Amino acid sequence: MHERPIVYLDTAATALTPRIVIESMQRYYETYHSNVHRAVYVTAAEATEAYEAARLAIGRFIGAPHPADELIFTHGTTESFNLLAKSWGRANLTSSDVVVLTEMEHHANLVPWFQLRDEIGIEIRFIKVTDDFRLDLSNLDELLRGAKLLSVTGMSNVLGTINPIAELAAAAHAAGALIAVDGAQSVAHGVTNVAGLDIDFLAFGAHKMMGPTGIGALWVRRSILDSMPPFLGGGGMIADVSLNGFSAADGIAKYEAGTPPIAEAIGFHTAVHYLESLGMEDIAAYEHELTASLLNQLATQFPERIRVIGPTTMEMRGGVVSFDVEGVHPHDVAQVLDQFGVCVRPGHHCAKPLMKRFSLAATARASFGPYSNESDIEMLMTALDDAVRLFG
Amino acid sequence: MSNLEDLYREIILDHYRNPRNRGELVTPPAHKAEGFNPLCGDEITVYLQVENDTLVDIKIAGHGCSISQSSASLMTAAVKGKSLETVRGTIDTFKQLMTVHESSLDTEVDPEPVNLRALGELAALQGVVKFPVRIKCATLAWNTLTQGLSDLA
Fold this sequence. Notes:
The complex is a heterodimer of chains A (392) and B (153).
Chain A: E1 7-8, H1 19-31, H2 42-61, H3 67-70, E2 71-74, H4 77-92, E3 98-102, H5 111-120, E4 123-127, H6 140-144, E5 147-153, H7 165-174, E6 178-182, H8 194-197, E7 201-205, E8 216-220, H9 222-225, E9 238-242, E10 245-248, H10 262-278, H11 280-301, E11 306-308, E12 320-325, H12 330-339, E13 342-343, E14 345-347, H13 352-357, E15 363-367, H14 374-391
Helix pairs in contact in A: 1-10, 2-10, 4-5, 12-14
Chain B: H1 4-7, H2 10-17, E1 31-37, E2 42-51, E3 54-63, H3 66-79, H4 84-97, H5 116-119, H6 135-152
Antiparallel strand pairs in B: 1-2, 2-3
């Protein structure tokens, strides 16, 4: 379709997939495609082993102390939050309870809580975002007073802001609340250690980590699982079923109804292995450098014309750069960039409340992955120059 | 490969920079219809003043990209002061123009030729069909106008 090479700057939407990830899934389909946790024949055993090995590896990748018993596979970050709200939320919250969110959350960490509020009438409070694109923690203790849960993103998919999770976890726990973290943007771009951060839930998805679409995970601190009833009902999540009803399976099996995404779990495992081979600290440092370079070039070349919607200093900041080109709608910016093969994302990024906070309908967003480089930035700058020229 | 010049014609950029019939009308007597493009966050409000089966006034409020804004502006210029029958005819012709015919993308032959002359300046938007993602931008105002007219019927 495209005659020009692709300059992919949309990793925050979905990361490109390394060949070894695709090959690992292909190997499953070609040589040991079987269902898991069911049959006794050899390929079924292999598939089950590969599926559970993925759980262990992905759990270890995020520093889970008991990966086999704590990491629930889901269809992605969105389903992870729905599981959290519908299983833990329904069982542990009542109309007098409070959940604290932030103004910079993705719709995936907003709508499930709004649905729960519609259903059982919880109170939702919001941590505000400051004019310099950080969480306003000045009244954190007040917001957390009486709260049962703080659910917050590790890194904003719009602003690139990295939030102080360890500090927030300590504050939540001091107030008697649990803390859930949206790791969709943060997990593939730096070291994540749930034990070190002392958090209670972590939601994340494979396709933003160079893995396949259709799979993600919710990590839950083991001691909390007892208070979480099953989520979806069906095969695989039961201990027994009769015409009188069912009893749920023990452990995390009760959250994984139906045939899971097996090939995707295997691909997810390979992706995590690939990221580890690059080194999470090295990835963070490399993307840090690219981001600093882009911010610097935008400020130098378009000081009057382009406003970055996010921190312009590199402290606690990741490789997601949203910007507003004065007089040019983000859709038009992205259209001109596409002519140069440059892929950026225009739109509200599934964070409409945040857009409203900064009186914007949309932004254009460039985001980096480990495969990004300086020549991508160079092409982006050339294409932006053209966009600015075209629209005058 | 589609060229940007097909999309961003001078007329389109002119209507984007200097939108016609922008503003609001008092409701009632005017009627108002709202349209959204949930994918990109574009929002448009069309104000209609209909008297004796004639669209005597139309105003546009809201925000969006150059394609949605210029299409809205061109639309107001095309339908203002016209009989409702003529307005409906223009809407139909425009929507026909925005219908993608896969086979026609690379050739100049259109299986169902649209009367471009009848569209006047609106014909400048025909390049949009070469960028299928943007068709929704171009049709937002028109769908909102259609909604407004059917509210009144």
